[in-house]
Design a protein that fits this description.
The chain is α/β, with parallel strands linked by helices and 354 residues long. The protein has 2 domains: 167 residues, Response regulator (Rossmann fold), CATH 3.40.50; 175 residues, Response regulator (Rossmann fold, 3-Layer(aba) Sandwich), CATH 3.40.50.2300. The chain has 10 helices and 13 strands. The strands form 2 sheets. Strands 12-10-9-8-6-7-13 form a 7-stranded mixed beta sheet, with helices on both faces. Strands 2-1-3-4-5-11 form a 6-stranded parallel beta sheet, with helices on both faces. It is globular and about 60 Å long.
Length: 354
């Protein structure tokens, strides 16, 4: 009996040592905002970037890298998850979303030897930590292309469903309005746009009811911009036989009602940034440390999906899309990124409902 007990105790010790070794081996981590890594949008896109980097370097999930999800939507919970990642050995931590604005400042000061890569954070340059680098995008470009394409396809009653009116969401929405208005001027039509921020990034009955009313009032297509709220919009679209535009990732695979997606292609640039950190002894290269890194259509980071399986327009062509992209790239078309004043329109009526 004593021998069996000793064997059991030995096994427990061995397992504890193995667990400790595993924890010490984790170097890279991602902490989600409030979503999951399979949310079909922002968190998933960031996770895919980390996984792509890990695969390219032969890293193993839960041995070399992992992810953490806060137990609630609060700064305290986010800091707790960051701390858990550091305790498990993480030296490089990816933080996707503006919800980390406060937490990253606390974490950067608490863990000065850890490198933090933010996505869509808003950091005051006066207090920008040198161990933080933030990826930002020209979302107004993706929104513009989505609005332009929708009107060229023939939609004239459109909607914009935003989550929380943070800069990234506002840029998507204001770009969308600009694209709608430009296409409308070219076609000689007068679109109507309903515009609303739900105040959350999660699906709920209020959003579903609001979208039900929009579709019932004649809205043909809604650009859903803000994490899981697209699920409420999709439910309403299914009921009304309406259409949607996805956001951040290519959401076309979720439903045939999503005819395109205004994409922010996080994985590729995040993979490159993580590689530069790995090659620089787990520290962001000096030229990128303590600052925002801007990505756009020029980098292939903003736009619509054009592969055959995702292109669901029947009137607007890929060639026409590329033509408007080229005009943006060569400066012939300028898209405003102003977020404190709604864009002026020439022929489009916008009903702001907040």
């Amino acid at each position: 009996m004593k021998k069996a007990l000793l064997v059991f105790i030995s096994l427990v010790i061995m397992l504890s040592v193995s667990a400790a070794a595993l924890a010490e081996g984790i170097t890279f981590a991602l902490v989600t905002d409030v979503g999951n890594i399979d949310d079909q949008t922002f968190n998933q896109s960031a996770w895919e970037g980390l996984v792509a980097f890990a695969d390219a370097n032969g890293l193993v999930k839960d041995t070399d890298y992992s992810y953490y999800k806060p137990f609630e939507d609060s700064d305290a919970a986010r800091i707790e998850s960051i701390t858990a990642a550091v305790d498990n050995g993480a030296k490089v931590i990816v933080l996707p979303g503006y919800l980390f604005n406060a937490a990253v400042l606390t974490a950067a000061a608490t863990f000065p030897d850890v490198t933090f890569i933010g996505i869509d954070l808003t950091i005051d340059p006066a207090v920008y930590p040198t161990n933080v680098t933030n990826m930002v995008f020209k979302e107004e470009q993706s929104g513009f292309f989505a609005g332009y394409a929708a009107v060229k396809e023939g939609f004239t009653k459109l909607g914009f469903l935003g989550g929380i009116d943070v800069p990234a969401v506002v840029k998507y929405g204001y770009g969308y309005i600009q694209g709608i208005d430009m296409a409308a001027q070219e076609l000689g039509v007068t679109p109507e746009v309903k515009y609303w921020y739900s105040g959350t990034f999660g699906p709920n009955d209020e959003i579903k009811a609001k979208m039900d009313s929009w579709y019932a009032e004649g809205t043909q297509i809604v650009f859903s911009c803000g994490g899981g709220i697209f699920l409420s919009c999709l439910s309403a679209a299914d009921t009304a036989n309406g259409y949607m535009i996805g956001v951040d990732t290519n959401q076309g695979g979720v439903s045939p009602r999503i005819i395109t997606s205004a994409m922010k292609l996080i994985p590729a640039p995040l993979k490159v940034l993580l590689q530069s950190v790995k090659d620089n002894n787990l520290v962001v290269p000096a030229e990128s440390a303590g600052k925002d890194l801007l990505f756009s259509t020029l980098d292939g980071a903003c736009g619509l999906p054009t592969d055959a399986a995702s292109w669901r327009f029947t009137k607007f062509t890929v060639d026409e899309y590329q033509a408007i992209v080229n005009k943006v790239l060569n400066g012939e078309v300028v898209i405003s990124n102003v977020t404190d004043v709604a864009p002026a329109t020439v022929v489009t009526t916008v009903d702001f409902q907040n």
